[in-house]
Design a protein that fits this description.
Bound molecules: S-adenosylmethionine
Largest sheet: 8 strands, mixed
Distance between the termini: 38 Å
Radius of gyration: 17 Å
Low-confidence stretches: none
CATH superfamily: Vaccinia Virus protein VP39
CATH architecture: 3-Layer(aba) Sandwich
Order of helices and strands: HEEHHHEHEHEHEHEHEEHE
CATH topology: Rossmann fold
Number of helices: 10
Length: 283
């Protein structure tokens, strides 16, 4: 467990994940009935972009800082609103270097009856997570393995909600684990929304993940990817994806507006690309 998200907070991959997360929560919030979020690999909850970790990599400069430069087209900004408002709230509360991670964003979006379970195994990071969530009785931080948190919390009693799975991809078999655990959870709760984050370093690994999920008969999927055309010499991550199981019905249309604009704004080379692929939308 060497991964520290503080090195990567606010980078282009976080932007895709967090913007889509906030879109999903906006859709879940349309109905009055409460929802539950299970964030299996929650991280610290909030990051300081002025910290030593963040300043060592400066990944946020090609991420959140690009979005701070100027507004995008009005239709894009309309969809970015929930994420922008949450970032502004984090900055107002914790200073201009604050960047909200997934649990903080969830907490910001949730209503009085909605609930969050956030699992984080790394002891120091867990400590930060509990501090970031404060004494909010709607949120529960667990210092347990994220896969156990997933197994133990589906289906949630609300029968509505989101499972966010954002593992560190330190282990070689993490793609296979992600597929197997998602398939097992989906058997127990087929109607839940699942958002699976993955790095695109090896296109085959991403294709195998999708193949395994499809072969398991999981019907409605939305595959979202952005590739910022990072020069190979620069190393590091150049493309990232989110696979959404049971996406809210307007999410694909929204992604078709968001992803071209985000990939262009976050580009590190002349040929950024994006992918927005609904799979068996009526499955
Ligand atoms: C990519 S980061 C999470 C970022 C966070 N979801 C966000 O968007 O702000 C992955 C986190 O998983 C934690 N982690 C690693 N192995 C874990 C496990 N088996 N169970 C739960 N958390 C784990 C790491 O310590 C790290 O904080």
């Amino acid at each position: 467990m060497n991964y520290r998200h503080g090195f990567h907070a606010g980078n282009f991959a976080d932007i895709l994940k967090h913007v889509v997360l906030m879109r999903i929560l906006a859709h879940l919030g349309v109905k009055d009935t409460p929802y539950r979020i299970v964030d299996t690999h929650a991280g610290a909850g909030r990051y300081d972009l002025g910290s030593e970790e963040a300043l060592r990599t400066h990944e946020w400069r090609d991420g959140v800082a690009r979005l701070d430069q100027s507004p995008l087209a009005p239709a894009v900004e309309e969809l970015l609103k929930p994420w922008r408002e949450a970032v502004a709230a984090a900055r107002e509360r914790h200073g201009s270097d604050a960047y909200p991670g997934s649990p903080w964003l969830c907490r910001h979006a949730m209503r009085a009856e909605d609930r969050l379970i956030a699992a984080e195994l790394h002891p120091q990071t867990y400590k930060k997570l509990t501090a970031a969530l404060g004494r909010d009785s709607r949120c529960k931080a667990l210092a347990i393995d994220g896969w156990n948190a997933l197994r133990g919390n589906v289906p949630p009693k609300e029968r509505r909600g989101l499972i966010l799975i954002d593992p560190p991809f330190e282990e070689k078999d993490e793609f296979a684990t992600l597929a197997a655990e998602t398939i097992a959870a989906h058997r127990k709760w087929p109607t839940g929304i699942y958002a699976l984050w993955y790095p695109v370093k090896d296109r085959r690994a991403a294709a195998d993940l999708l193949g395994a999920i499809e072969d398991a008969g999981i019907g409605r999927l939305l595959r979202l990817e952005i590739d910022v055309d990072r020069p190979e010499a620069a190393g590091g991550l150049g493309a990232t994806g989110l696979l959404v199981v049971n996406p809210p019905w307007r999410l694909a249309d929204e992604a078709r507006i968001l992803l071209p604009a985000l990939s262009e704004r976050l580009a590190q080379g002349p040929r950024p690309r994006y992918l927005c692929e609904p799979i068996r939308p009526d499955g």
